[in-house]
Structures are given as structure tokens and as C-alpha cells.
Amino acid sequence: MTAYPVVLRLSGKRVLVVGGGAVAARKVEGLLASGAAVTVVAPVVVAELRDAAARGEVEIVERSYRPGDLEGAWLVLTATDDDTTQQQVFDDAEAAGIWVNAADDPQRCSFFLPAVHRREPVLVAVSTQGTSPALAAWLRDRVAAVLPERLEELVAALARRRAEVQAQGRSTEDEDWPAVIEAWAADLGRGATSDDTAADEPTVTPPNS
Which CATH number fits domain 14-112: 3.30.2130.30, 3.30.70.100, 1.20.1250.20, 3.40.50.720? Predict the structure, then answer.
């Protein structure tokens, strides 16, 4: 079955991480970057997680997982080497209607975490749906290598163009966005600023005209 890709907004959402090792620490780092309120449950935690807790970035509960730990959680990630715990968390989360991801355990996942490259607000995310994280990372790096150098400026210019179209009461579906993007990316490549690009936008004929 084909998975449905989404991008989640986790700011202020409670996320439970079951596990306290190096893998869990990497998951926590990404969650914190997304603004999540992270609780880690594990009998033992690595120094990185203790340091994050000392900075007030995460809550750590030093004991084994209990079903009640899911209360109030919006998302759950597990990263343990205990199959029994992994299965219990998956079963409990599924019963509660909470999405769960188990590190390197695709059979106990209701969603997968892609390999990600961030150039805010652009996210390049590649997933093999849990079959080969190494391949996903390899593909991500190759896509990231060909992104425009001034991508952030291009995004800003396109956002302004989109807002202008909407303010005029026109449908953004009528814009020939590939032509606009190609022209503006070329302008930026020649040293124009994003303000210049927005002011001197190319004349593009809507596809339905």
C-alpha cells in the first residue's frame, strides 16, 4: 500500500519518545527543531538528552514505558532494542489513535520519518517507506546538492507573487508557475535581488488564455 506524505506542524504539541539512546537523541533533536514539547521515557538516557533536560528543552522520565505515558501525546516515537516494549507502544498508540514511529522497525510504524534537508521554508524529504533509510539519505543528499544557491530569496519572491495573485481575486491555478520559477531563478543566478525579481517579474501567459 502506498503511503500518503505529509508535513506536520508540531509547535507546542506533546511528543513522547520511548528510548534514551543515541538514536532517540537524534529523534529528539529534530523534534525540538520543530518546536515540539518532548517527553522522553527510558530507564537510562545518554548525556545529550540529560544536557537537553538541564537546559529545560525536554522532560525526562527515567523508568520503563507505561501505557499511561501516552496520555496527552500527539505523536509517539520509539527507539529501543526491546521488541516487547516496541510492540506494546505500537499497540497502545494504535488503540488511542496516536501516530507512532518505531526506529528501524517499519512493521510497528503508522508513519515513516523521511531523510530531510532543510533550507527554510523549503524541506527536501525522501522516504523509502522504511525499506532503506540509507538509500533515502543518499537520494536526499543528491537532491540537496542541486538546489539553487539563493533558494530562500526565490521562495520569498514567489510567496509575494502568490499573495498578489490572491489579492487580485485570481486563481493561483491560472499561473504558469514553472515558467515564472525558471525566469526568476535565472535572474537570481545573474545577481539580481529577490526585490528586483519581484518588481521585474516576467510576463507569463496563463495556460487557459
Answer: 3.40.50.720
